């Protein structure tokens, strides 16, 4: 018989009270600690999801022309763009209670621990989808306690800040499916050549089994193991009630066609163009390099794949394979200023230096249209005459002398019209006009056309001795073709981020910088390089191309000792090319000197084949007059050669040509003139 004394009873009660008191404070401390932990994680906010994703570049027709990635093919897709079969298969095998737990499946964890103890080895996993997602995003796959604690913290933060649908979407877009395919879209494209939304039950159950061990369960590594894993997943789906026994049997019997090819492996599609696009993203849109390379952007460009193909084909066709001469080519649609094709060299893999956007080369006589536009603005007309003769020009208050010469030293030694001077590329006429207008006039006019390189106001500027970029020159010609409406070259129509949100969309900023009537007159003048009627003391510069032309072109060629150019346009398209040596070596071979014209003509004819021939516009206020190109007077029926010239109304010639009239008609005309003078001035 146990006897409890009063003093003993009091001691027992005292200890019980003390235990309860300590237990209460311990529980409160634990609750406070847990609460503080949750509060701390809430204050930390949502963990940033920074998953490297492939940036894709699209042509104007929506076709992918390239991508950038760091060895991980990954294309983020929304959850509703994934086959429901794949979602259910993944949940069945990875985390059946995903939508019920808050990041941890404690029952499953306990069961896994028991199984591991029985086997005395790690035989069963218990990580939820959220835990795996946290590990894939932020952690390594080592098995230290530090990593496990970090995983638990990240798991809780993810669950606290994202919806279940967002977590599942992120998980499916980050897990590894083998062979460089990260995320379900890349895996679906690689294994089956289709979008994740189109996966069948058989295909989805096959893919869902791969992440457990990509090197083991990939059907390309071991079809038998992949099929066994697929069978397990289909059984789990049937047990969960998401498919019927018949669906399971049909999926197992389905013979799958494995493609094993990644999308967008052709990195050769317009590499110089894509390089230019990346420069625009960085310099004009302010996108950082990391985002450009791995931000999962969708960049919708202005590239016309047909134009690009024809441009590259023409370059290969014309330039000898063993030649060190490099090309720089650009084509631009005048109405929109969209860059439709660009080549910055012969071979991007050998030389990624982009000569179309980076190289600064002397444009030669392709610079003259800017001069003659300035002349039109300052009272010149296509019929304005200046003498073409060997001339020494003094400048800098007579301290310096400039002695330009015409090609092959051919001079008219007589007055020639501006239209003819442009067509035969008379340098004397150009320098005289340049100095008459004052050199600063040409500098300012070229800047209005978008030429950004520094231009020196020297007499030689009229002949294109200051370096320029090919892209800017072609865009300037596109401005002429667009009736004087200027806009910077456009490479990008739209940019979307990895979630499909539009972060940039092109809005036209075109500006009517030049008079429509004057640009129409200039355009018609520029067709003269192909008109043999303007050949005289020198041939028009496009004489070799004219017999092969299938439509009207306006343009201008140009050359220096080291550079050969050809730029021209139709109402639909402007294109230009430079050819030369990177090191500035003199171009000596006769064939090499024809490369620019031949490539340009081959491209323009090919790209316009089958398209409607459009005439250059003649706006209201512009009149067409048949003129004798030798003297700029209105042509008579007796003139052996005539040329239709455009004039602003009120500036056209009034005097008729009498140089070719028969002798008796000349006498009659002379008498008429004398009689007219007598009637006007009877006292004479």
UniProtKB/TrEMBL annotation:
GO terms for biological process: cell wall organization; peptidoglycan biosynthetic process; proteolysis; regulation of cell shape. It is found in: Cell membrane. GO terms for molecular function: penicillin binding; peptidoglycan glycosyltransferase activity; serine-type D-Ala-D-Ala carboxypeptidase activity. Residues 329-572 form the Penicillin-binding protein transpeptidase domain. The chain crosses the membrane at residues 20-41. Its main location: membrane. Residues 62-237 form the Glycosyl transferase family domain. Keywords: Carboxypeptidase, Cell membrane, Cell shape, Cell wall biogenesis/degradation, Glycosyltransferase, Hydrolase, Membrane, Multifunctional enzyme, Peptidoglycan synthesis, Protease, Transferase, Transmembrane, Transmembrane helix. It comes from the Bacteria. GO terms for cellular component: outer membrane-bounded periplasmic space; plasma membrane. It catalyses: [GlcNAc-(1->4)-Mur2Ac(oyl-L-Ala-gamma-D-Glu-L-Lys-D-Ala-D-Ala)](n)-di-trans,octa-cis-undecaprenyl diphosphate + beta-D-GlcNAc-(1->4)-Mur2Ac(oyl-L-Ala-gamma-D-Glu-L-Lys-D-Ala-D-Ala)-di-trans,octa-cis-undecaprenyl diphosphate = [GlcNAc-(1->4)-Mur2Ac(oyl-L-Ala-gamma-D-Glu-L-Lys-D-Ala-D-Ala)](n+1)-di-trans,octa-cis-undecaprenyl diphosphate + di-trans,octa-cis-undecaprenyl diphosphate + H(+); Preferential cleavage: (Ac)2-L-Lys-D-Ala-|-D-Ala. Also transpeptidation of peptidyl-alanyl moieties that are N-acyl substituents of D-alanine. Pfam families: Transgly, Transpeptidase. NCBIfam families: PBP_1a_fam. In the N-terminal section; belongs to the glycosyltransferase 51 family. This is Monofunctional biosynthetic peptidoglycan transglycosylase. It comes from Pseudobacillus wudalianchiensis.
